[in-house]
C-alpha cells in the first residue's frame, strides 16, 4: 500500500462496486454462468473501505467473506445486478463494474425442471440480449462528477481491443487484463493496464489483486482531482 492509501484519501466518497458473475436461469435448478470468482471486486471493496470510502458492493453469486465496512447487496441475474447498481449509483462518486455480466440470457425460463425425452434430441436454447449496465451508467451519469470504471478481459490484441471498448462503452477508465489458460480467473494475482479516456495508460505488473485495486482507486482519485480544476 502506498502513502496515499494511508491518508484516508477516499473519505467522504461513496463508491459502488459490482463483483462476481451473473447466473441466467434455464429452469429452477440450472443456469448459464461464468467463471468469475469476484476476488478482484472484493479487493476493490476492501481497499476503498480502508481508504475511508463508503462502499456498496453488489455481489453476484460470490462465495467470499463480506469485506469489512462494506454494504453487500447480493444479486443473481444481470437484470437484478442492473437494478441494484443503478439504485446505488444515484448518489455515487464512482461506480466500478468488476462483475462479469452475462451478455445473453435464456429467452424463457422453464417453470419446472427440464426433462429428457426418450429418443428425442434436446431443444436448442434460445437466447436474448441482457442490458449493458456499464454503457447505460456511462450514458446516464446520475451524479455530477461520477467516475465510471469498466473491466475487460481480452484474449488477444489486449490494448487495441481495450481502447475500442472504452470508447464504445463511454466510461472514464477501463481496466484491461489478458485472460486465457491459468490467467486471472480465480487466481490471487492479476496483471492489467488501466486505460484512461483522456489517453493515459497505467501498466500494473502481475501482483496481488489488492495492489491493482489501489492503483484503480488512484486513477479514480486522479479523475476527481482533474474534474475539480
Ligand atoms: N458489462 C455490463 N453489462 C453487460 C456486459 C458487460 O455492464 N451486459 C460490463 C462489465 O461489467 C465490464 C464491461 O462491461 O465492466 C466490459 O465487459 P465485456 O464483456 O468485456 O464487454 P462487452 O461489451 O460485453 O464485450 P464482449 O462482446 O467482448 O463480451
Ligand atoms: Ca461480455
TrEMBL record:
Indicate what this protein is called per its UniProt record: Coenzyme A biosynthesis bifunctional protein CoaBC
Q: Which residues of the full protein are shown?
A: 178 to 406 of 406
- Taxonomically, the superkingdom here is Bacteria
Task: Please state which protein family the record places this protein in.
Answer: In the N-terminal section; belongs to the HFCD (homo-oligomeric flavin containing Cys decarboxylase) superfamily. In the C-terminal section; belongs to the PPC synthetase family.
Give the species this sequence originates from: Streptomyces boetiae
Pathway listed for it? Cofactor biosynthesis; coenzyme A biosynthesis; CoA from (R)-pantothenate: step 2/5; Cofactor biosynthesis; coenzyme A biosynthesis; CoA from (R)-pantothenate: step 3/5
> According to its UniProt record, which cofactors does this protein need?
Mg(2+); FMN
MF terms per GO, please?
A: phosphopantothenate--cysteine ligase activity; phosphopantothenoylcysteine decarboxylase activity
Q: Which UniProt keywords apply?
A: Decarboxylase, Flavoprotein, FMN, Ligase, Lyase, Magnesium, Metal-binding, Multifunctional enzyme
Q: Where is this region: Phosphopantothenate--cysteine ligase?
A: 15-229
Give me the comment on cofactor binding: Binds 1 FMN per subunit.
| Entry EC number(s) | 4.1.1.36, 6.3.2.5
Provide the function of this protein: Catalyzes two steps in the biosynthesis of coenzyme A. In the first step cysteine is conjugated to 4'-phosphopantothenate to form 4-phosphopantothenoylcysteine, in the latter compound is decarboxylated to form 4'-phosphopantotheine. Catalyzes two sequential steps in the biosynthesis of coenzyme A. In the first step cysteine is conjugated to 4'-phosphopantothenate to form 4-phosphopantothenoylcysteine. In the second step the latter compound is decarboxylated to form 4'-phosphopantotheine.
Q: In this protein, which residues make up the domain named DNA/pantothenate metabolism flavoprotein C-terminal?
A: 10-221
- The yes or no answer to whether the keyword Magnesium is present is yes
Give the residues the record marks as binding CTP: 103, 113, 131-134, 151, 165, 169
Quickly give the catalysed reaction: N-[(R)-4-phosphopantothenoyl]-L-cysteine + H(+) = (R)-4'-phosphopantetheine + CO2; (R)-4'-phosphopantothenate + L-cysteine + CTP = N-[(R)-4-phosphopantothenoyl]-L-cysteine + CMP + diphosphate + H(+)
Amino acid at each position: 500500500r502506498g502513502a496515499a492509501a494511508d491518508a484516508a484519501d477516499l473519505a467522504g466518497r461513496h463508491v459502488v462496486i459490482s463483483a462476481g458473475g451473473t447466473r441466467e436461469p434455464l429452469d429452477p435448478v440450472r443456469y448459464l454462468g461464468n467463471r468469475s470468482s469476484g476476488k478482484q471486486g472484493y479487493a476493490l471493496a476492501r481497499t476503498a473501505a480502508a481508504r475511508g470510502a463508503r462502499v456498496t458492493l453488489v455481489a453476484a453469486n460470490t462465495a467470499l467473506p463480506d469485506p469489512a465496512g462494506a454494504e453487500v447487496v447480493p444479486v443473481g441475474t444481470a437484470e437484478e445486478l442492473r437494478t441494484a447498481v443503478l439504485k446505488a449509483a444515484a448518489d455515487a462518486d464512482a461506480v466500478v463494474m468488476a462483475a462479469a455480466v452475462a451478455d445473453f440470457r435464456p429467452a424463457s425460463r422453464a417453470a419446472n425442471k427440464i426433462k429428457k425425452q426418450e429418443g428425442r434430441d434436446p431443444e436448442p436454447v434460445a437466447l436474448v440480449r441482457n442490458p449493458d449496465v456499464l454503457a447505460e451508467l456511462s450514458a446516464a451519469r446520475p451524479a455530477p462528477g461520477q467516475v465510471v470504471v469498466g473491466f475487460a478481459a481480452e484474449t488477444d490484441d489486449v490494448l487495441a481491443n481495450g481502447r475500442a471498448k472504452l470508447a464504445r462503452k463511454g466510461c472514464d477508465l477501463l481496466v484491461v487484463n489478458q485472460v486465457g489458460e491459468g490467467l486471472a480467473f480465480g487466481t490471487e494475482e492479476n496483471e492489467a493496464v488501466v486505460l484512461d479516456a483522456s489517453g493515459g495508460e497505467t501498466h500494473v505488473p502481475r501482483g496481488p489483486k489488492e495492489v491493482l485495486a489501489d492503483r484503480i482507486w488512484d486513477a479514480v482519485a486522479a479523475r476527481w482531482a482533474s474534474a475539480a480544476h
